[in-house]
Amino acid sequence: MQHVANLARREEARQEQVAIEVANLSHVYAGAQGAVPALEDISMRVGAGRFVVIVGPSGCGKTSLLMMLAGLRSQGQGTILCHGRPIPDPDPQRVGVIFQEASLYPWLTALDNIEFPLSLRGARDRETREERRERAEAMLKLVGLEGFGERYPHELSGGMKQRVSIARGLVQDPPVLLMDEPFAALDEQTRMTMGHELLRIWSTTSKTVVFITHSLTEAVYLADEVLVMSARPGRIIDRIPVALPRPRSYEMMATDVFGQLRERIWQQIRKTP
Amino acid sequence: MRRSLTLPAPATVRRGMLVAVLLLWELVPRTGLLPELFLPALSSTLAVLYEDWRIYSAALLVTLYEVALAMVIACGGGIVAGAVVGGIARLRDLLLPVFSSLYAVPIVILYPVFTAWFGVGPESKIAFAGIYAFFPVMLSTAAGIRTIDPQFIVAARSMGATLTQQVTRVIIPASLPTVFAGLRLGGALAIIGVVVSEMLTAAAGIGYLVTLNRTILDSPRVFAALLMILILSVAYYMLARAIERRMVVWQSAGRSPKAARPENAVVVPA
């Protein structure tokens, strides 16, 4: 018995290190023209506090995978564990999601948008209105938008909207943050700045991040590890550790190591039709 | 100041145009360019309104009552039906073509039938105007509901919103602009429907006054009624716009966020 208890404890300890564990995940869509295989035998393990970037051609199922990790879409075969437990439904306490279009609610101010997930808990939560407000304001400050809380989304720039969106994803303090091409709609300069900002926020909050992008530069710049997916049906065809030191700086982009990593990802992606 | 003389603001131009129309309305008949039978002067029209204010205000009350009830049918029914038909894909595919083709039917042909069913009293006007305004409101609501970004709902789910919260906190506020557009359209059409049906067969209301006085060639009294309908329609439109601006703050860019708290839009979904 003692032995079993020890094993269980050791198992717990091991799982604490792993934030996301996906094993043999496959998914087939029932499309209009018959079944479409979307994901094929995906296995991945993301350690707690790691920054993992997924790249791959359009339509390879990256977003589907992310939606499944978030509990927003039911999976076919295989298992998904988030901190050791399955995630059949969205659970904002465990996983926060940040979408491509900032998807802020235009009828709410920036601050109310950030507070929105907290306000949903409403009666279920003992937190008072003032405490919620304070938390939302702290998040606004964290993303560098102090003083912009009363603005409506249409009064903010694209980059500012994504900052609000990130603050909204962080406000419930989930250990895992999933980001689906969050900077894709931004211009190149804003995109680089936002990437840098994200790393700063990440380093102060120690979240586990799974980040989807099309940009190879962004992938190398942000990631601890880059996962390359093939065209449909999506499979993971390469796992590339990024050994660049942190904190990352823009100057690193000019280094040989950066170029080689970028080239390796590109070679993998272009192999797929 | 000098600049505003060379390039006056649109609002100033609009006010100027209104003054010009009123002036012409007075001057054209007075100078004999048009006989008073075709166009009675503004002053004679206003004089009639003053003399017969009891008759006109009683008629206005009847018309308002009919318009209000027709609006309940058209806006209430139209917005709810439009939301259901537009929001549920299967119903949309099934019913939208039917409603769209019905919209093309000149519904005024139904009015004689309605008088047979409901009599010549207010009921037939309410029924006719209600149906007349119902279809456009329903169709515009159905179209508007579909423009709600599905990402709004995915985001809400990811933040842990229950189904009820998705409706009350996301779908209802997101559809407010559509609902208000429907209200504006429905109200305007209900006024038209009521006045037209009063002109066809009635014993009361502003439209009835138009027909009655036209048959006895009493032009000032006809124009007095027209003026009241005009004022009624414009007043309704301006009221609807004012409410809309207060409720849908985020659509009127550049306004002070302090003017109306966004919670208003969520808590009072019209």
Question: Please, could you describe this protein's structure?
Answer:
- The complex is a heterodimer of chains A (273) and B (270).
- In chain A, helix 4 crosses helix 5 (158-170) and helix 7 crosses helix 8.
- Chain A is an alpha/beta fold and 273 residues long.
- Chain A contains eight helices and ten strands.
- Helices cover 38% and strands 25% of the residues of chain A.
- In chain A, the strands form two sheets. Chain A has a six-stranded mixed β-sheet, sandwiched between helices.
- Chain A has helices at 2-17, 62-69, 110-121, 129-142, 158-170, 188-205, 216-222, 256-271, and strands at 18-31, 34-47, 51-55, 77-82, 85-86, 95-98, 176-180, 208-213, 225-229, 236-241.
- The termini of chain A are far apart.
- The chains are: A alpha/beta (273), B mainly alpha (270).
- The A-B interface holds A 70, 72, 90-93, 95-97, 99, 101, 103, 105-109, 112, 116-117, 120-121, 150-155, 168, 172 and B 149, 151-152, 154-162, 165, 169-170, 173-174, 176, 248-251, 253-254, 257-258, 262-263, 265-266.
Describe the structure using short key phrases.
heterodimer, A: alpha/beta, 4-stranded antiparallel beta sheet, globular, B: 270 residues
Describe the protein's topology.
The complex is a heterodimer of chains A (273) and B (270).
Chain A: H1 2-17, E1 18-31, E2 34-47, E3 51-55, H2 62-69, E4 77-82, E5 85-86, E6 95-98, H3 110-121, H4 129-142, H5 158-170, E7 176-180, H6 188-205, E8 208-213, H7 216-222, E9 225-229, E10 236-241, H8 256-271
Parallel strand pairs in A: 3-8, 3-9, 6-7, 7-8
Antiparallel strand pairs in A: 1-2, 1-4, 4-5, 9-10
Chain B: H1 2-6, H2 10-30, H3 42-51, H4 53-87, H5 89-103, H6 111-118, H7 122-145, H8 150-158, H9 163-200, H10 206-215, H11 219-247, H12 263-267
Helix pairs in contact in B: 3-11, 4-5, 4-7, 4-9, 4-10, 5-7, 6-7, 7-9, 8-9, 9-10, 9-11, 10-11
Category from helices, strands and their pairing of chain A: alpha/beta
- Helix residue percentage of chain B: over 70%
Q: What low-confidence regions of chain A span 5 or more consecutive residues with pLDDT below 50?
A: none
Q: Outline of chain B, from the CA principal axes?
A: globular
* Largest interface, C-beta closer than 8 angstroms, per-chain residues: A-B, 30 and 30 residues
- What's the order of the H and E elements of chain B? HHHHHHHHHHHH
The amount of beta strand of chain B, in percent, is under 5%
Radius of gyration of chain B: 23 Å
Largest sheet of chain A: 6 strands, mixed
What's the number of extended β-strand segments of chain B?
0
- Overall 3D geometry of chain A? globular
Helix and strand element order of chain A? HEEEHEEEHHHEHEHEEH
End-to-end gap of chain B: 43 Å
The total count of strands of chain A amounts to 10
